[in-house]
Specification:
With 366 residues, the chain is α/β, with parallel strands linked by helices. The chain is 36% helix and 27% strand.
Length: 366
């Protein structure tokens, strides 16, 4: 399948915070298969028409298993699948897409405000909750995606917590902390941290045990919150909390592979005059390269590009290859870019590297 349907669905999954693996066949004995795609989630699969027409159920199951393995590991990988029944082998590349992480700040007081100011410089979506209008308004948090003025129990139900959420509990009282923890402890989230003195934390944890929460469940909560940097002021506390969140984010499978989101979004929403565009995806890198695997660029027949695979001479090569493909109605191909040490230095890198770029036609749905 070489049209935009699957990319439309991929964009929808990203926006709905669903982890998804995008699988593309990049080499196959049967050329019709090259460029065929599938979307794999834990409980759902979507295949291009070409895959379902040519591959049998066992072969599709192999594709699913390989994709789910990559989705659990969180890093883009290529794999060769052997289909002994018809003697055909295919090489696939699997890209795991994780939702943008969301930072949920429960409590819009001084610590919450400082945490927001720091976090908005990172790539977190931010939601702020407080039950006081003076601490939950767009004036205080203008860049937040959600600012909710409501009771904490109701607000957390409305937020629909997911495994990509990082939750900081910084309310003004024990009862609010307790309410928040009751709402989130049974959820699959990336991080839960609670602000408070050792005495306050001890008191709240004891209450949780009294109502039936186990030690294992309570141990999910980072309290005292933040890395120990001797912080005292609200701004310093905000730094220590974000430092701990970043540490967690970088040491778990939270790759947030949205490297090619600009190109995906452009293709999914494209309603222009051209019937065929080209999509270039970096599928493998070695050495020093300007962009990582998964980066994407769309090439239009008039030479315009959307997204980037790093700029410079390498990107120009790929652009020309894509234009030739569109004009000649050619098949997908893999183009290798070799950056010598001298060329890499000109483009601001320490040493040379190599990129393999998969260039494929995208047929626009009419």
């Amino acid at each position: 399948m070489k049209n935009q349907k699957i990319l439309i669905e991929l964009l929808s999954n990203i926006e709905q915070k669903e982890r998804t693996a995008l699988t593309t066949i990049i080499e196959a004995e049967e050329s019709k298969l090259i460029g065929s795609k599938s979307l794999i989630k834990n409980d759902e699969q979507q295949f291009s028409d070409m895959l379902t027409n040519i591959l049998n159920d066992d072969q599709l199951d192999k594709l699913i298993d390989s994709s789910l393995q990559v989705l659990s590991q969180g890093t883009m990988q290529s794999d060769e699948l052997e289909f002994s029944e018809n003697g055909q082998d295919v090489e696939i590349v699997v890209e795991p897409y994780y939702p943008n992480p969301r930072l949920i700040i429960l409590g819009g007081g001084h610590v919450g405000q400082n945490l927001y100011q720091l976090a908005k410089e990172l790539d977190f979506k931010i939601a702020v909750v407080d039950d006081r209008p003076s601490f939950a308004n767009q004036h205080l948090f203008p860049s937040a995606e959600e600012v909710i003025c409501a009771g904490f129990k109701d607000a957390l139900t409305e937020l629909k917590i997911t495994e990509s959420d990082y939750i900081v509990i910084a309310t003004r009282g024990h009862q609010h902390d307790f309410t928040c923890l009751q709402q989130v402890l049974n959820s699959e989230v990336a991080y839960i941290g609670m602000l408070g003195s050792k005495r306050r934390v001890y008191s709240i944890f004891n209450r949780l045990k009294e109502v039936g929460y186990s030690e294992e469940e309570i141990d999910k909560v980072k309290a005292p919150i933040g890395l120990d940097i001797g912080s005292e002021t609200p701004a310093e506390i905000g730094v220590s909390i974000l430092a701990e969140i970043i540490k967690v984010r970088r040491t778990v499978v939270q790759q947030n592979n949205i490297a090619g989101e600009e190109a995906i979004r452009f293709l999914a929403n494209y309603q222009g005059d051209y019937d065929t565009l080209a999509l270039a995806t970096i599928i493998k890198t070695s050495g020093s390269t300007p962009r990582k695997a998964g980066s994407k660029m769309v090439i239009l027949p008039d030479g315009q590009i959307k997204g980037t695979i790093g700029g410079g001479c390498g990107e120009s090569e790929v652009r020309q290859q894509a234009l030739d493909m569109i004009r000649q109605q050619g098949e997908a191909l893999i183009h290798t870019i070799k950056l010598s040490n001298d060329l890499a230095a000109e483009e601001g890198m320490v040493c040379g590297g190599r990129m393999e770029v998969f260039i494929e036609p995208v047929i626009i749905n009419n």
